[in-house]
Design goal:
Elements: H1 28-40, H2 44-61, E1 69-72, H3 77-88, E2 93-99, H4 105-118, E3 121-126, H5 129-142, H6 149-166, E4 170-172, H7 194-204, H8 217-226, E5 228-230, H9 240-251, H10 264-278, H11 283-292, H12 298-305, H13 312-325, H14 330-338, H15 350-354, H16 357-373
Parallel strand pairs: 1-2, 1-4, 2-3, 4-5
C-alpha cells in the first residue's frame, strides 16, 4: 500500500493513485500547471492582443449569420462569466443549456436572469429523463468514478451539434487553466468517449440510447478540424473572486456554496459519493489550482478541507432525493456504494483502441495535421 503523502506546494495527495512527487515533495500536477500556464495563458498586453485577434476572427467568420459563436451555460461561475465577457466584447452568442433533470431552482433563476440582462438568446436541450436516468444508474452500477461523464458528454455534444447545424465555427468555453488544472485523470476520464458510454449502458442499462446527444470517434476528430474551441478565460486576468463580484453586482447572480453545485446530482456526487466510496475529494484539485493562481493560501485550503464537503443534513436530504429520483431503493444504493471499485480501463472504450501500438504511432502525426488546419 502506498504511503500517504501530500504535495509540499499545494494540497493534492496520494488519493490520486497516479500522483508522483519530485525530490522536493512537489507533485506532478503542479509542474503540469506551471507548464500549461507558461505555454497557454496570456496576461497583460499579450492577452489583450490575442483577445482582439480572436474576437475579430469570430466576427469576420460570423458575418451574415444570426450568431457568430455558441456558449454553454450551466448557471455556474465560469460559464456565466463567459456569457458576460463575450457580450462585453461585442460578439453575438447563442447560449446553450442542457437540462438533464437535475438543475437546482437557483440555477434556473441564475440562467434566466443573467441571460435576460445580457440580452443573449437561449436554446435548451431537454434530455429524455427516463433514458438519461437509466444511463446514470448504469454508470453508478459500473462502479467507476466517472458518473458525471453522461452529463459532460451530452453538453459537449449538444454544443458541437448545434454549432454544426447553424454553420458556426466557434465554441467559447469556460474551461481555463488557472482555476481547473489539477483534476487527476484517475478521478474522471472518458468525457468524449462514446464507445465507453455505450458499452457501460449495454452492460448495465435497460434502455437503448435513442435520443441521447452524442458523437463518435470520426465525428470528434473531424470537428477538431472544422470547429474551434476558444478558452477565452485564458486570455484575460481571470480570477474567481473578481468573477463572483461582477456576476453578483452586475447580473444579480447568486452563489451556490460550491463549485458545480448548481446541479443537485453533481453536489451529491462530488460531495458524498466520490469521497465516501472512492476517497476522492474534488475540493483538493479545485483548491490546488486556486493556490497556484494566488487566490487562496495553502493554509486556507487545508482549513476548508478539514470541514465536511457540505452540510451533513443537506447530504442526507440529497441522498434521499437522488435515490428516489433515480428509482433506486436504499438497499440498491447501498449495494452500489459497497461494490468493488473499477475504472475507465475496465470497460471497452476508444481509449483502449488508442493504446494499440499502431495508434500510438499515428496519433502524434494526426495531431500535427489537425494543428495545420487551426
Amino acid at each position: 500500500m502506498t504511503e500517504y503523502q501530500m504535495c509540499k506546494r499545494y494540497v493534492m495527495d496520494t488519493s490520486d493513485p497516479e500522483i508522483t512527487f519530485d525530490e522536493n515533495g512537489v507533485c506532478n500536477h503542479c509542474h503540469t500547471y506551471d507548464r500549461l500556464v507558461r505555454e497557454h495563458v496570456l496576461d497583460g498586453e499579450a492577452g489583450r492582443k490575442k483577445l482582439e485577434q480572436v474576437v475579430e476572427q469570430i466576427r469576420r467568420d460570423g458575418r451574415g449569420k444570426q450568431y457568430d459563436c455558441v456558449i454553454g451555460v450551466s448557471g455556474g461561475v465560469d460559464s456565466t462569466y463567459v456569457a458576460y465577457l463575450v457580450k462585453k466584447l461585442g460578439l453575438r452568442p447563442l447560449a446553450i443549456h442542457v437540462d438533464n433533470g437535475w438543475d437546482s431552482e437557483l440555477a434556473v433563476k441564475n440562467i434566466e436572469e443573467t441571460l435576460k440582462r445580457l440580452g443573449i438568446d437561449l436554446y435548451t436541450e431537454v434530455l429524455d429523463w427516463e433514458e438519461f436516468k437509466d444511463l446514470q444508474v448504469s454508470f453508478l452500477k459500473a462502479s467507476t468514478p466517472d458518473s458525471e461523464i453522461p452529463s459532460d458528454h451530452a453538453i459537449f455534444s449538444t454544443l458541437s451539434n448545434m454549432a454544426e447545424k447553424l454553420g458556426i465555427k466557434y465554441m467559447i468555453v469556460g474551461n481555463n487553466i488557472r482555476t481547473e488544472t489539477h483534476l487527476p485523470r484517475a478521478w474522471s476520464q472518458g468525457h468524449f468517449d462514446w464507445k465507453y458510454i455505450r458499452e457501460v449502458q449495454k452492460q448495465f442499462g435497460k434502455r437503448s440510447l435513442k435520443t441521447f446527444p452524442h458523437y463518435g470517434f470520426i465525428t470528434y476528430y473531424r470537428r477538431m478540424i472544422t470547429q474551434k474551441r476558444v478558452p477565452i478565460l485564458d486570455y484575460v486576468n481571470y480570477t474567481k473572486k473578481e468573477a463572483l463580484r461582477v456576476l453578483q453586482e452586475e447580473l444579480g447572480w447568486r452563489y451556490y456554496g460550491g463549485k458545480h453545485y448548481e446541479s443537485i446530482y453533481t453536489r451529491f456526487y462530488q460531495g458524498y459519493i466520490l469521497p465516501e466510496k472512492f476517497g476522492y475529494d474534488k475540493r483538493r484539485c479545485h483548491l490546488s489550482s486556486l493556490i497556484c493562481s494566488g487566490e487562496v493560501t495553502r493554509e486556507q485550503a487545508l482549513e476548508e478541507l478539514s470541514i465536511p464537503t457540505y452540510s451533513p443534513s443537506m447530504q442526507e436530504e440529497d441522498r434521499e432525493y437522488v435515490v428516489k429520483k433515480l428509482g433506486l431503493t436504499d438497499d440498491e444504493f447501498t449495494a452500489i456504494m459497497n461494490a468493488p471499485k473499477k475504472s475507465y480501463w475496465d470497460y471497452p472504450s476508444y481509449g483502449q483502441f488508442m493504446r494499440q501500438p499502431v495508434m500510438l504511432k499515428i496519433v502524434p502525426f494526426a495531431k500535427k495535421v489537425v494543428s495545420w488546419f487551426k
